[in-house]
Write a structure and sequence with these properties.
By secondary structure, the protein is an alpha/beta fold. Helix content is about 50%, strand content about 15%. The protein contains twelve helices and eight strands. An eight-stranded parallel β-barrel has the order 1-2-3-4-5-6-7-8, surrounded by eight helices. Helix 4 runs parallel beside helix 5 and helix 11 packs across helix 12.
Length: about 325
């Protein structure tokens, strides 16, 4: 680690340790740029703005803190409402689901039933569901559910694979017969070094290998990153294969590096923005920042910049 990087990393971790003591209104102010809001109407407004700037969206209902079966059904019904709203408002958006919110940690069959209902409702409306990936304890069950759904004839569903995991390229190869739609991301969960690459360059290298493997399998790839080097590598890989813009896409988080997103759109690439909303915004904000201290540092510096230079912020 460089002399500059080490103090920055220490500062990021210090910011994370202070987060639980930060008043909720302050956390809300910080997270406003990265979370659409608490209500579906908030997500609708943000997605309309995203679409107006030539970008697609994927809407996520925040709700990983599930403790009982009824709460999973609340999340399931919330996704049905999102799908109806996408139709009603004419939004260019699909949805992304976290299986913990649909009950994966409570009961596998409960989760399967809830997920199937969401996917069937999306299919009825001509929409698509992306199954998000969570920590490594859920990977096998997530991929098992995905395979079961695809083998049952559900084609409007894709999955996420994390480049930080050592198993990811092998997972791409194991799924190849399904011709899956795969979002490749770095992954924010901290796992044991036996199953996870920890070095920055290793994660980058495995990200490129994973995207390459998805494309070699003639599958649709969503390249989800804010890393400029990886974006350039993604461009190279799709260019070398002569792919059209409808055969791949880039993805980014709401409010993160919008300059890069605008540049991708200007170059003619398809870009999808991840738009989370829901009542669990506070838990989501703390968890994401604690899992990835570098984001805490980025948000802190970005927030200070927005306070010092309010006219430079624009709209999201």
């Amino acid at each position: 680690m460089s002399r500059i990087a080490a103090p920055v990393a220490i500062l990021d971790k210090a910011i994370v340790r202070l987060l639980p003591a930060v008043p909720r209104p302050v956390v809300r102010r910080i997270s406003n740029r990265y979370i659409a809001g608490s209500e579906l109407s908030d997500a609708t407004h943000v997605v309309r703005t995203v679409n107006a700037h030539g970008k697609l969206a994927t809407i996520d209902v925040l709700g990983e803190e599930i403790t009982n079966e009824e709460e999973t059904r609340v999340i399931m019904r919330a996704y049905e409402d999102v799908l109806a709203e996408i139709d009603r408002a004419g939004l260019e958006s699909n949805i992304s689901v976290k299986l913990s919110g649909l009950g994966l940690e409570l009961d596998y069959e409960l989760c399967r039933a809830n997920l199937t209902r969401v996917i069937e409702e999306a299919a009825r409306r001509g929409n698509f569901v992306r199954i998000d990936m969570e920590d490594a304890s859920t990977t096998d069950d997530t991929l098992s559910l995905y395979r079961g759904l695809r083998e049952s004839g559900h084609d409007n569903v894709g999955v996420v694979l994390q480049a930080s995991l050592r198993r990811t390229v092998a997972d791409v190869e194991a799924l190849a017969d399904l011709e899956p739609s795969v979002r490749v991301c770095k992954g924010i969960y901290v796992e044991s070094p036996e199953i996870q690459f920890r070095e920055f360059k290793e994660v980058r290298a495995n990200f490129v290998r994973a995207v390459d493997a998805v494309l070699d399998a003639r599958c649709y790839v969503a390249i989800a990153t804010h890393d400029e080097w990886l974006i350039d590598e993604g461009k190279r890989l799709v260019r070398e294969r002569g792919l059209t813009r409808d055969e791949y896409e880039f993805q980014m988080l709401l409010g993160v590096r919008p300059d890069l997103g605008d540049a991708l759109v200007a170059e003619g690439h398809k870009l999808r923005i991840y738009v989370p909303f829901g009542a669990h915004w506070y838990e989501y904000s703390l968890r994401r920042l604690q899992e990835n201290p570098s984001i805490a540092g980025y948000i802190a510096s970005d927030t200070i910049g927005r306070i010092l230079h309010p006219r430079a912020n624009g709209t999201r």
